[in-house]
Amino acid sequence: MTVYNVYILYSEKSDIYYVGHTENVSKRLLEHNDLLSKSFTSKHQPWILKSSFVTGNDRGTAMKIERFIKNQKSKKFIEKVINDPMDIDFIT
Questions:
Q1: Which end of the chain is more exposed for a tag (fewer CB within 10 A), N or C?
Q2: Which of 83, 80, 75 is nearest to 14 (CA)?
Q3: Is the pTM of this model over 0.85?
C-alpha cells in the first residue's frame, strides 16, 4: 500500500521554504538536490529537510494539505507546521 507524505524543505542560500508531497521523502530530497537538475528548486540548492509527515494512503489528501500550506503564503505558518504538524487543522 502506498503511503503519502507532505514534506517541507528549506534553502539557507535563498531563505525560502518549499512544500511538496511524495511517496518517498529521501528520494525526493535527493532529486531536489541533484546538481544536474534544471528546475525551480535547482536554483536554491542545497535543500535541507525541515519536516515531513504522513498524510495517509490517498494522494488527493496529500495534495490538498500541500496546497493548503502553500496558500497560507506565510513563513510563520510554515514554521508552525514544522514545529508541530499535528497542531494544524488542515482543511481537506
A1: N
A2: 75
A3: yes
Distance set, CA 73 to CA 12, 16, 26, 31, 85 (Å): 18, 11, 25, 24, 16
Which residue in the block uniquely carries the three cell numbers 529521501? 26
Residue with cell 530530497: 29
DSSP secondary structure of 65-82: HHHHHHHT--HHHHHHHH
Single-letter code of the amino acid located at 18: Y
The order of strands in the sheet holding 16-22 is 16-22, 4-11, 48-56
For residue 56, give the amino acid letter. Answer: G
Reported as a single tens digit per residue, the pLDDT across 8-64 is 999 999 999 999 999 999 999 999 999 888 888 999 999 999 999 999 999 999 999
Which grid coordinates belong to 88?
494544524
Rg (CA), the chain: 13
